[in-house]
Each structure stands twice: as structure tokens, then as C-alpha cells.
Amino acid sequence: MKRSLLLLVVLSACSPTVYGTAFVSLPPKEPDSIISVYEATSPACLFEEIGMLTSPFNKWVSIDGGLTFRRNRTMEKVLDAFRVEARKIGGDALITPVSLRRLEGIDQSSSVDSNDFLSAIVIRFMDPECQRE
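Below the sequence we write its predicted C-alpha cells.
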């Protein structure tokens, strides 16, 4: 029992915390559904916003491999966590207001707003064919 609890604590420390709000009630997507990410842009197809996701990142830590989140949380880990949550609320894709990958190479003090959160809008395409683009 103690080992299981310790394993749970260790594993939860490795994944980013994501807070989500669903604007509509939809069935979840399959765990292997592809969730595209539109960074600082929108898809060409019609879509509706079905939710919002946020994740705190606290402070940047500079290491030899580049900029990462505290406790070695990379942008890709946050995007993966966003994808998991988007599937749970029935989303097809994510729209981020800024390019998260570009933030990794920019001085945090002049580019990231003071609330220390990353966010993404969860969308559902009006035409299911748009998912295949």
C-alpha cells in the first residue's frame, strides 16, 4: 500500500496540472484521437469553442537543454496534458493564443504575462472532415 501511494505521488509530480472548463457537454473522444494544436492562429474550417484549459507554470528554469518549467516540465508535456483534457471534453483541436514553442526561446521577463498561466481554447469542428486536414 505504501509503495502504491509513493508511486502515485511520484507520477503526479511529473505531469503538469491542467484546469479545464467545458462550455458544453459532449461525449469524450477516444484516447488515441489526434488533437491538433493551432499556435497563434485559427483553423480554416468553421469550429465552435467548447472549453478552456489553463496550466500554471510558475517560474522558468534555465538549464543546458533549454528553458523548461519548474520540475522539468517542458512545453511538449503541457501540450500533451492539454490534449488529454481536450479529449475528455470532446474536443477536436486546441488553439493557443501564442506559440508555446516560441516561448521556450524568449526571455520570460519580457514576454510572458504576469499571471504565470498558459492557456488553450478547446474547439470542435463543425464539419468532421476538417479533422483530417
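The chain has one domain: 16-132.
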